[in-house]
Amino acid sequence: QEPEESLESVPIRAKPLWQDVKVSNLKYDEGLLVTHVNQTHDLLRVSDTENGKSESQSSEEWIHCNGIESRHLTIQDLLNLGHIVMKPTRNASKQIQFTPETIHEFELKIHKAIEDYHKRVGWLMESSRKMFGLVKGKNVGLLIDSSHLNCGPRRMDFLRGLLCLVDEQICYKDTIYLMSVGTDVSCLWNSPKNVTVRMLHEARQWIQELQPRGGCNLLLALRKALQIQNLDTLVIIVSSCPDQTPDVLADYILQCTLGRNLQLHIVSFDSIAQVDLQTLADSTGARFHCFSSWKEDEIYASTDIKLLINEINKATAILNKINEMRQGSLDNALIRIMQEISTKVAKMPTSVFLPKPPNHDGPLNIEIPNFSPKTSAEWLKKNGLKAKKLSLYQVLAPNAYSLVEDFVPILQKKVSSTLHERAMIQFEWHDGTVKNIHVDPPMLYDYQKQLAKIAQMYEKRIDWLTKGSRRIWGTICEKRVILLVDTSIENAMHIIHIQHSLRLLLEEQMGNKDLFNIISFGNDIQFWKPSMALATLENLQSAWKWILNLQCEGGRNVLSAIKRAIEFNFNDEEDEESLGIYLFTSGLPDQELPAVSAYLAEAASGCDLQLHVCLFSIEDDSSDDISDMNDTVRVLQDLAHVTTGRFHWFADKGITESDDITCLVSEMEKAVNYSKKCAFLVESLKRRAGNKEDNQVPPAEGSVVPYQKEKYKPKTLPLPKPTALTLARMGMKNDQEGKKDTNMKALLWRPNSAKADIPPAQAFRDQDLTSDKKVKQQRQQKMSFDVFYTENGRNIGVVYKDYPATKTVRKRIPFIVLPKEEECCSSKAWLKKYGLKKLKLQLTKLVSGPDCTHQKKLVPTLHKHVSAKYCTIFPSVEINGVVKHLQFQPKELEDYIEQLEKVLKRYIQRLQWLLSGSRQLFGVVLENKVCIIIDSSSSMAPFLAELQKGLITLLWEQLRARNIWYVEM
Fold it and tell me: Any idea where the VWFA domain is (predicted)?
């Protein structure tokens, strides 16, 4: 059979035509309507890739895809959605008409965009991104500041932040390079290393071992880091102040990065040079990030967050434009929108447009405390210095002795205890009396260690008081609490801050309370419940939902709020616990202070009721605001202290004043004062022991004193026999005290042969007595006298010409004369001539006089011992722990002040002379031959003109005027 015949025998089937199928209620295709299961996995993988890509993008890149213009949400896009209508009138004008659905959908898109921007800001303010920002690039170099200024109390937080940065961002990079910046630089590796587990471990260990290295020589670090060619991102983390100016650093960076695709990321971590770092980032086009632990709003100066805030402001401006369109015309086009849409949008609260913290509208995360807190005053009753028996006077009381005077039968007279004054240390007691203290150094050393431990405990409590909700409210100590919240119109821009403060309080401190209520006051009084309710989890969540609906309007009707709180929530029953009212406000009440204070005093009389005031202020630091705030603080403090309540002032920079913290600081200062007095007692004891050792150095017990043989001296010829007159003159010359008997008899003459040939033994002389006698002889003034023979035989007489001047206790104020012309010498040499010690103007020397011993004597008529009244009549001063009577008259003190003013003016004149001319740059040139070495490196370029001017001044003012030879290099 032929093939063609077989083909003809096969029947041909016709393909049926496609028919259109109409499906009603078809859902919108979101990209997940697929025909195969593998396609679903591919779509999900692409979605995850896009999310990861958005997390690795900077705010500039993210806004390029999600900004207002990218989402077509500008005012021009809104006008394009309207329909232009012309009215058939003579003066026809354009009219743009919108449907309610169009306006409503457009506003929803704007609100959704604002919400996305807030979420992005919240994401950037989490974990390591909050401290260092978002680090881009795959090959990253880190320059870490390790100067001495970075060794404060926040150093451990800085190191923990660096470790968090390595674990959260650096670990996903390809290569890393680490360098610490100090006076010199230190690198972990010589070149960038691939990111592995071992390299990350080395990086973490290197960060933990960072030590301070002097200054912050950022220019030297940039010279070395910019030579590495394999980096695409360079992160500069500065927590102090660079040694170089921003202009020098910017010029060097721009020169070295010309033609390179290197992105700089500058981080200011608690830096005092934030403005300079931001200027450097703006000059070089770098990304800037700012983190401050004491001022949290500084983070909004960061580049990524600032761009998002600008987009939020754009979106808010568009919403304001829509409101203007509802009110009237925009350019030449009249806007007409449905009245119902206008009414709904007008009712929207202003809090919608304010930035909110993350999860602001979410439910509370309540933590129930496991203890009842106390005020610092109550806490110190059990943990204060007096409660712990650590008062200095309690410790010294067993070894403190007063002056005792009693009758001794053996001596048949009264004897006072002068031994204490000689062997002990005089110390002023808390009642003003002076007691003699037996100093026990080991006991005082242990006491100082106990003071250090209790001071650390006080520091821990202060740190606890400055965290969480206690930073804003203080401690909530009562079991029944009423919160009075200020919702006046002045707090409209701070309503989010008020709500967040209440949220922290409800989460952290209200879980273990018995009853509570919340009252807001403006012009009108609003309350959560008519009376106090139980502090259950459901009631706390219900109170938070009520707080979210608070609106600010009117003034501050504080008196009505207090009346509402007391009259509807307080029952005066004996078995009920105390009631605490916490007033949370930002300014003065509308009523006068006497009216509010009088009502509080009357309501709290006989009741356990306290009103505590929590003041929050977010204002500028202008002089007018500061004076107004001082008046506000004074009024609110008086209001809180009417019912023995506490005052707490919280500002945007932290706690400004708190009664709880003030009590602790006062106790710490008392502990420091006690420690200083202990150190003074030990130092006085050491000084007294040192003086005794200098005066008398006995041989050690058990030591052998070597016997020194007497050296033989050849006999010398005897002197001729002196006469009685010669002996009298020699005796009066050697005896400076003039106490020897002047009736000396002439010695009987003996021949030389009567002397023995054996040399006599040397007379024993006490070295201590001899040294003391020599000191007295040096201090004793010489007398002028003549010696002559009397008529009675060989008796001699003495006639004094000049008598020694009597030494008085009083000291005169010296009159000083200082030169007007300046001397070319060092300040040390100049002060040797004209210092206070040389001019005899030291106050301790002038006031030094006899000690005040406070002796007591028996008065027969009173039959008791009475101390001397002159101690209270004459003025007394304390000099180095010893009470002395002041010996100067008011006129002498005025003369002393006048002389001191004269000396102070001369010192200021000398200081101005040293800071003028070439001496400001080079000081005073003292030598006759000088070699000047000048640094001519590139770092001196900004100061070249000033250096040249200073050298010219030095040449003509000092070198040429004094004929000094010099060599310049």
Answer: 139-289, 480-648
